[in-house]
Queue: 4 jobs
Job 1
Amino acid sequence: MAYSLLCFWIAVITLCSAAQGAPSKKQCSDANLAIDGGHYVLSKNYNEGSVLAYRCPHGYFPYPDKSRRCLGNGMWKPSPRKKPRMECRLVTCPDPLVLDNGSVFPNQERYYLNNKTTYECFSEYTLRGSSSRVCQANGKWSGGTPICSRDTDYCHDPGTPPGARRSGHIFNIDDKVKYRCEGKLTLVGSKERTCQQNGEWSGSEPECYYDYTYDTPEDVAERFGSSLKNNLREEEEESQSQHEKKIRLDKSGNLNIYIALDASDSIDEEHFTKSKEVIKKLIDKISDYEVSPKYQIFFFATKVTEIVNIADFYREKGPTLDEIKDKLDVFEFEAKGNDAGTNIAQAFKTILQSISFVKTQGEKQFLNVSHVILMFTDGGANMGGSPKPKVEQIKDLIYQGDRENREKFLDIYVFGLGDDVWKEEIDEYVTHRDGEKHFFIMQDMQELSKTFDEMLDESNSVGLCGLHKDFDDGRQSTIVRRQPWLAKIVVTHKESAPSNCMGSLVTPRFILTAAHCFKFGDVAEGMMVDLGRYREKVKRYIPHPKYNTTSKVHEGIPEFYDYDVALIELVRDVHVSVDTRPICIPCTTQTSGALKLSGSAVTCKQHEQILLKNQYERATFMSPRREPKHVHLKLGAARESCIEDAKKAKNVTVKNARDIVTDNFLCSGGIEPETDYVACKGESGGAVFVERNSRSVQVGILSWGVKNLCTDSNNNKVLSDESSRDFHINLFKVQPFLKKYLGDGTKDYAPLTFLD
Ligand SMILES: *[C@@H]1O[C@H](CO)[C@@H](O)[C@H](O)[C@H]1NC(C)=O
Ligand SMILES: *[C@@H]1O[C@H](CO)[C@@H](O)[C@H](O)[C@H]1NC(C)=O
Ligand SMILES: *[C@@H]1O[C@H](CO)[C@@H](O)[C@H](O)[C@H]1NC(C)=O
Ligand SMILES: *[C@@H]1O[C@H](CO)[C@@H](O)[C@H](O)[C@H]1NC(C)=O
Ligand SMILES: *[C@@H]1O[C@H](CO)[C@@H](O)[C@H](O)[C@H]1NC(C)=O
């Protein structure tokens, strides 16, 4: 809690405790407390130590004060004034007129709740982000920051968020941009960002917060969820073949989670009870990921009260999930004592001690442990000093002088609740990671509870699509896990030899493949899908309705493969695990998570901009022996000459290559900018995928090629020549077909959620 003016940590602590400890004689008065358009609540009536909080209707905020505290001398701090009178003011949003190279309509001095703005770019500039935004009740604009850019530099234009000022207009490698927020706004996120080798900006987009600005449960669920998943993923990869939850619960977890809950006296009983529920929800959510972290859970106020001690896990006495929940349940509100202060430094000290203990358990093992700190507080430190030195000690202990490589082993998240949160200070000590957010400001516990509900609602069985192990890991045991979506398909035909195709698991029930694997009259009984761990029976196959190879025979195209896409529905859902897991499909919210895109405004177009960004986009497909074959998809200006080679295919007599390679195809092969691998027989229908954030996203389906350079003896690892080209159905072009079957919420399997 943040009654900073009374017990500000720089102030003399003795004065602080004297004020609290003095016997109360006087009550505070109710003069001039009223607020126009709202009301106030008191924690201890008009007695000493009582906290007064102003409440306004949705979309309004109290002005000029947010709260007061009754001091021992009978005075309110801050003291109420006659003028300006307390009132509930309509929420405004930060200044959107900061857009470079474009115009904002309408141009106003202030933008109030529900005011709408639209954005247009000057000619030659293209718009990224939202073209229209609405000022929301939480003090933020809907959608994403509009940016007008020509993208002539190495990194894309990082834009300027509303209310901010940016310095730096060149975006090549190592160039920096700096941000600050105007007036009373506080900057949350990166004050400085650097254009990196990988074409991305370091850090995360800054945002300007008023003291009434907060994050919505939807935003937090998405951003915290995707950030947390990255930790759970590492854990998942590290642990060996123990898929059984029970086995892992006992030992092998190397993820430590420290949960610190503020129990200072601004936190009332209801809030306290709710916070226990919230923690239970969170640890349930984490267990869904088949991980078993070691936990430290405690409440803090002036002192620290422990619920679960991490040392017990190292002494083989670690409580089970149910036992942790029981411990939380039995911990009573009264038990926290009559503590007044918020001693965040003490909380971090406790965590520091735990981490030091973990280190004593084995220096070598310590190097593999990831530490996640989750701090829930309703304010800033008002006693015990600044938490920053303790946080620095924690960082030193974990980074061990090798910050660059060790940074990923520590995540400090802070959830600030209510509007007394010290944004600036907290934002300085949470960890920052590219594209991720670690500091969230929420209205209250209720909203936080909703956040974890949202996270829980997301279907676990299809979560973490496209998770993969890096290719350079040669361990045999992980060979399946590297491509847990990979499917081999055998289709028997009435009148000819069986076809061998490849496919990809896209939901627990569906395999995506090429339509040409099937012939007229094929029946589901004659098909089999091999997913490595499982062999699955087929219920039906669904070719794209527009697929027709003979439709252009008379135009000099003996075989026309437009819309060469089909879905196979399995008889039952496969069990999703480390070994069997869907690949990410573009334009789904699941894939937004993998791409670390957040908010309701994410579009299919944005996915395309990220996934098919470069003129030569590096992509991969797999051989039936599970060997990766790298290619470059030729996009933009490079596409033309790539598809031109289609005319060299046997028996093709068209003049215009576009007649045979429609816009629905991606093109790979050739020797520019590097020599690509070519596809071989039996690889048809396989996924062509790109990798982002250690997740694989399928962008194409292997359909056909100009030449067959493969022989039985060269094991499918065949390099292209100058004019050997392969064509792949572009998944962005067959969205309605995918959406129709994979997004169908009326069926009993977990559907995907498609974006517009
Ligand atoms: C685009 O915006 C930048 C940054 O404000 C400015 O330096 C540049 O002159 C603008 N370009 C045009 C053509 O207006
Ligand atoms: C913006 O909101 C204010 C307050 O509701 C309203 O008076 C004003 O007309 C709105 N302006 C526009 C352009 O919608
Ligand atoms: C820690 O990581 C190393 C490789 O960095 C590995 O050899 C070792 O088995 C790991 N130890 C544990 C306990 O996971
Ligand atoms: C495919 O196209 C050809 C030529 O337009 C047409 O005759 C044939 O009926 C089509 N086949 C199917 C299954 O629609
Ligand atoms: C090309 O046409 C000839 C004669 O019509 C036929 O025998 C051959 O199979 C065709 N080749 C291909 C690759 O379609």
Note: Confidence is low (pLDDT under 50) at residues 1-24, 234-253, 456-462, 469-480.
Job 2
Amino acid sequence: MLSDVDPEIAALIQAESARQSSKLRMIASENDVSAAVLEATGSVLTNKYSEGYPGKRYYEGQQVIDQVEQLAVDRARALFGVDHANVQPLSGAPANLAVYLAFLSPGDTVMGMSLPMGGHLTHGWSVSATGRWFHAVQYDVRKDTGVVDLDEVRSLALAERPKVIFCGGTAIPRTIDFPGFASIAAEVGAVLVADIAHIAGLVAGGAHPSPVGHAPVITTTTHKTLRGPRGAMILTDAEHAKAVDRAVFPGLQGGPHNHTTAAIAVALHEAAQPEFREYAHTVVANAKALAVALLERGFDLVSGGTDNHLVLIDLTSKAIGGKPAARALDQAGIELNYNAVPFDPRKPFDPSGIRLGTPAITTRGLRPDQMPLVAEWIDRAIAAAGNAPALDRIAAEVSDLLTSL
Ligand SMILES: *Cc1c(COP(=O)(O)O)cnc(C)c1O
């Protein structure tokens, strides 16, 4: 037993479990995995080395591991409707790095959404290896709409001729226009990569349009809306499969994390059930209901609302920064992150916004009719920043609701 061998870590895991269950977990990239996913993650598969791919390994004893990985691959192909799936990337950032290795050489031009506008570090942001080793050009959102303008993306692509274009990001509250990006990529001869890390579960559940058929290469984490273990996948058409496989192994990684692969297979099985479709649609319904309730309370939302699982609040009009607001909310039992908003006049470490997501609270069982209450708590907590007794009272109400579910 862990508690006998290492009581310190056992107690900390217990404490984290209690912390998670007593709070509204609204970090948009997080979720709450099933007991089945946890069990697979904590299995003896972690003991096995298996460099290579099913049927082509460099170590013996792959009789079982080959079947595990093949199941994960087959389930990913079936769920998303793609020709090929690589389930070995260790996480989302390494998956994206594998894409660079597959289709670019250092110094080549890559195009992605800039980080402060909602893109990801690995889409060419300056501090990332992807921005340092490649010529990265970045597109923004429009100031008046808070949404990407594909005419601007097209002009930039025609001027810069990127070899790879990334679409998708970490703080995009609106539907991504995959066909629109695909026609720009076709016009300039770029490989379109759809990074659906945040929305993979919504895509799988039919609550966001699929990039399949538009983006020949799709990267995703497995632990966000998809509700699996921490990991990633690269989904491709037949043409781009070999280059991606070679880039992941031997290009970038050694042995795959087989316990994670098994847990990804479990999560993909769960995501193929009818209940998961309902889950994905409820995630979106919750986010939309939350957005409406926040707007009614005078909050300013980037792009005016949401189409997916996340809401980005610009707190400028509330005269509080994102960081003190996030801290107050955490004390009030609502866990989220401070976030830059487009054209943020404040510094990245002390930005103007907060980002909220509904994936974990939907898993927990919250429904759209409870979102006005959540918005009320958020409003009260922000107004009560610095007032510990008031924040504690909200935390008690949050905990009461969660215990009643
Ligand atoms: C989360 C995320 C990643 C990175 O995933 P990690 O598992 O944290 O490395 C990459 N791209 C996007 C769009 C993401 O949201």
Note: Residues 18 and 127 are 36 Å apart (CA to CA).
Job 3
Amino acid sequence: MSVCVYIYIYIYIYSSILSCLFPVGTGPLSMAVLLQSPHAFLVILLLLLYWVGVQSIPDPRQREMLIKLETSMQTGGQLQLTDAEQKLDAVLFKMKQRESQAGAFPPAVHFFKARELIRASPIFSLLQRMPKGAVLHVHDFSIVDAEWLVKNVTYRPHCYMCYTDNHSVRFIFSSLSPKPLSHCSPWILLENQRAKMGNSTDFDRSITAYLTLFTEKDPDTVYPNQSVIWGAFEQAFLAVWGLVTYTPVFRDYYYQGLTQFYMDNVMYLEVRAMLPELYELDGSTHDRSWTLKTYQDVTVQFTKENPDFFGARIIFTTHRAANITSMTETVMEAIKLQRDFPDIMAGFDLVGEEDKGRPLWYFRDALSLPAEMGVTLPFFFHAGETDLEGTEVDQNLLDGLRLNTSRIGHGFAINRHPVAKDLSRKKGVALEVCPISNQVLKLVKDLQNHPAAALMAEGHPLVICSDDPSLFGASGLSYDFYEAFVGFGGLRSNIGTLKQLAINSIRFSSLTPPQQDIALAIWQRRWDHFVSEKVF
Ligand SMILES: *[C@@H]1O[C@H](CO)[C@@H](O)[C@H](O)[C@H]1NC(C)=O
Ligand SMILES: *[C@@H]1O[C@H](CO)[C@@H](O)[C@H](O)[C@H]1NC(C)=O
Ligand SMILES: *[C@@H]1O[C@H](CO)[C@@H](O)[C@H](O)[C@H]1NC(C)=O
Ligand SMILES: *[C@@H]1O[C@H](CO)[C@@H](O)[C@H](O)[C@H]1NC(C)=O
Ligand SMILES: *[C@@H]1O[C@H](CO)[C@@H](O)[C@H](O)[C@H]1NC(C)=O
Ligand SMILES: *[C@@H]1O[C@H](CO)[C@@H](O)[C@H](O)[C@H]1NC(C)=O
Ligand SMILES: [Zn+2]
């Protein structure tokens, strides 16, 4: 092999490192820029070392250097660690070694079975205490655990429930006896039902099971394939719907959601929200802008009560099963909401099972409207949440990037799309990686094999998110941080990785740069406190 090949490899590696250091707007790096860079010296040194290396037995110094080079490329590999951080890192490394040698390694096990193991892990309790910055991908009606819905919401007066033909339930609050639903049993007033039973512990447990996918049984038997689990997912979602779209519950639910993330040391959220019409006890309803206004009011109230919480913004979402006419109308409505509520509204996205829904390309005319009209409507598209390589849906990654998406929801398939991956990196379009979601929805079994392992190793722009924690039996963000850090981060990811992930979550948010600076300053204060605390 000629020397030129090695020169090429090193230039490539260094351009990767530099574009990872300066991900936004760096563009292709020329040779001249590289040689002016502070790394040029190291490049030449490595070339010489390699030149010697190819003609004799491997040189340990060279090996050391290559290992260092790889480490410097990973997420957080460029951060200078303080003494306190290094001390904590040493502790973390020992904890990780112990955890990976234990019998059942949680990231290799389905989350439903791993949850108890994770709860017992000292790394997990550390991650719970860690200030994690922001969560940029969670859905409106999956931010509060199902137990709270049962214990708090279904105990309120006027709550009715019916059983559907296919193993689900529906709820409604109503002052009068509600109209019967087709494919559902007659309505039961829960107050009366519980009074009749005396002890409702078992009954409550049975209701809880309808509001989450979590099960004590073997998850692979209950949910043998993707279509079964997506079916159950949509049913659980519909079951929750009637509870949370009742106006007084909606407010309390969102407030409780903010509380649960705040308690998990998350300081800012970007929530994907359907903005449904909310209803009152007499059946009257409010429109979308009223729902958005309610989000804004509750966010302001919560932030006032908790000064080190930074706030939340809403990404308006609509189902990808829509037709072109209704998508066009929804996009026009989104443009109007974005104009009327610029503070709370972050942008727009499509939701629902990607494999069964319509691809972004199908909606290209509707989604190009904002650009054509010269108005702002930032996009935050789910894309690449699929195993179906080469299908129309599999093009969502490239199409999303062409439509100027600000981030990519999941991007699970990105390693199979070198052009999309390169664009995402060069444009600084971060991936929202949701490990537990991908495992539960059957894209990957063992989280050590998650595609983000490779992405983290090369410092690709990404953030860790929890998608639908309550449906997966999780809560907040720490469980997903655990899977990322211990699972696909392996022994190599360290305190720098965690720090970078937290910083990323603020830097890749929809906040303006000055807002990001304020949020980062608050985060930094809490981080410094966190790393200097005694671990044991
Ligand atoms: C339900 O939650 C609300 C709001 O957090 C709280 O005021 C109320 O006391 C709770 N009710 C029950 C029965 O837990
Ligand atoms: C209600 O039933 C559950 C189990 O079915 C039992 O554990 C619990 O102690 C009972 N509660 C009361 C107050 O009797
Ligand atoms: C998924 O599993 C269900 C239940 O076992 C089965 O009826 C269905 O055909 C399966 N679907 C696919 C796509 O394999
Ligand atoms: C359950 O029933 C509803 C209404 O009949 C139907 O639309 C839906 O597809 C069914 N879901 C499953 C998982 O069978
Ligand atoms: C499109 O969807 C809307 C709303 O779901 C529906 O009312 C309308 O009939 C659909 N139009 C066509 C052409 O299918
Ligand atoms: C994407 O951004 C480019 C450059 O700012 C602009 O020319 C183009 O119209 C945008 N496209 C869409 C669909 O927003
Ligand atoms: Zn999602």
Note: The longest helix spans residues 513-532.
Job 4
Amino acid sequence: MSRPIQAHIDLSALQNNLRVARRLASGRIMAVVKANAYGHGLLRAAEALGEAEGFALLDVRDAVALREAGFRQTILLLEGFFSADELPLLAEYELSTVVHCSQQLAMLDAFPRRKTLPVWLKINTGMNRLGFAPEQVPAVMEKLKAHAAVGEVTLMTHFSHADEPEGVAEQLERFKGLTAQYRAPRSLANSAALLRYPASHGEWVRPGIMLYGASPFADTSAQQFGLLPVMTLSSEIISVRDLKAGECVGYAGLFRAARPMRVGTVTCGYADGYPRHAQTGTPILVDGQRTRTLGRVSMDMLSVDLSELPNAGIGSRVTLWGAGLPVEEVASAAGTISYELMCALAGRVPVKY
Ligand SMILES: *Cc1c(COP(=O)(O)O)cnc(C)c1O
């Protein structure tokens, strides 16, 4: 028998979440599958998301893998190409590329192929991460439209506050002002903007996190949007003991029992992708019942409070996050976001679809 930890990926939940996006979105759907589909497995996730009109990711090798697996949709490289050597590959595999800086424009000039590359022109409207400055847009548009190697141009930006109370208004207005004169498809919305700001949808929406069943908002749960959790990380209790008042659990004795209590050890730790910064009190399910973690998470194990669960023991099933326990709650107890937990699922955890 191997270690009883496992990630279960519910592909029908992924399909449900794509339908939620479809119902809300006015544009075509570019499913964001970067970072191994947020830790869910690129090819399996893409298969379940096969109704999407496009896929967005970063690594050209992953893009090629999608094409070779038979996906005919638009495939977009979100950071574009990094050197001119990649351009023939992009053309050969009919990949779409973001162009976000003048260095990339110069690399394009060295590429002789005709009208082969669909380009997504990234405009910086306030995120200040990637994209051309507003004042560069007219000249870049002119250059792209006249460029022999460039096919269709899509206008794109990315929001910095779509999941926050500030929203998208300022960036949306700036983008509209900059692009009003062009006849070109537009793409702005991540999950948060897709869910909350229909005016930002344009011709292509780019949902990521919502497809994987997590809410981008602190004030609205995934369930309230009809989203279902896709990844469930589960394991088992492999040891149980009674603590006397004053005894501690785990490294540095971070948790000390104020009274006698019953403690279980779960075989799941930070080397599995469980966040080490999860505090005592992080929610966790044992035999489907909610309880809390105790003390410091170690590499391969963590401790749980079984004081109120007299029937739990060695072999009891434990849910770290997923079905019955939103990943957002665990992330928040660890001072992070659901995205990071999903992406950090470790390679040593067996995945079952
Ligand atoms: C990651 C990413 C998205 C998806 O964001 P979510 O918050 O996961 O929906 C959309 N657009 C770009 C440019 C991204 O990098």
Note: The radius of gyration is 23 Å.
